[in-house]
Amino acid sequence: MKLIIFGPPGSGKGTYSMRLRERYGLEKISTGDIFREEIKRGTDLGKKIENYLKEGKLVPDEIVIEVVKRKLEGLDNFILDGYPRTVEQAKVLDKIAKIDAIIKINAHKEILVEKISARRICSNPKCDGNYNIANIKKTIEGVEYILPPLLPKNDMKCDKCGSPLIQRDDDKPEVIEERLKVYEQQSKPVIEYYIKKGSVPFIEVWMNRPPEEVVENIVNAIEKLKVHFLNRNP
Ligand code: ADP
Ligand code: ZN
Question: Domain 2-107+175-225 is in which class?
Fold first, then answer.
């Protein structure tokens, strides 16, 4: 199965693709993760792309396409996260793989801002503890959001290591607005490209419940499509 996942910052996209990876034995391919890894290892590629990531700019298509082509070669089961980010990237992908479905995570901006602003991470750089202090219960345009908080056991101290919790710089409201805007601008033409193309089914789900439930909704939709996959080419 070959999937693409689209979702704004704060939509839980990373968590969902992790669960889908486990569930279906998919390879999770995140171009952002690949790039960060290359930079950490100080490879030639890493050196070439470092500045783009630092400035939050898109890495040029030629470079991204080369990396993804190499990565997807011979892979039959994967979920793509963070690719395609441009129409050009989508067109190249069309040539190298037949995508079975696009998972699109929807959420109202107001909810994303509230949710991201409420993220707290462990201040210990060796610890990956992360929490969320927002308790969201509201309905926007007919979508009912019930998103309980993920609180530490002790007053703003990490459960894993006891260090104080902090807020990441790019989780502050001014920066969030900017990240959401950039996501909107970038994803719109790519999504429109697939809508126009019309041959890849969309699985649209709302991020209006805790991750387990959202994943369940995605899985249900995939199972419905599967009948379709089976009836297709052997
Ligand atoms: P973010 O949510 O911050 O955009 P990602 O992990 O998806 O995080 O990507 C991090 C950075 O890697 C992006 O800001 C961009 O510089 C680069 N990048 C990732 N995927 C792509 C892509 N498909 N095309 C161009 N640049 C990309
Ligand atoms: Zn910790």
Answer: alpha beta
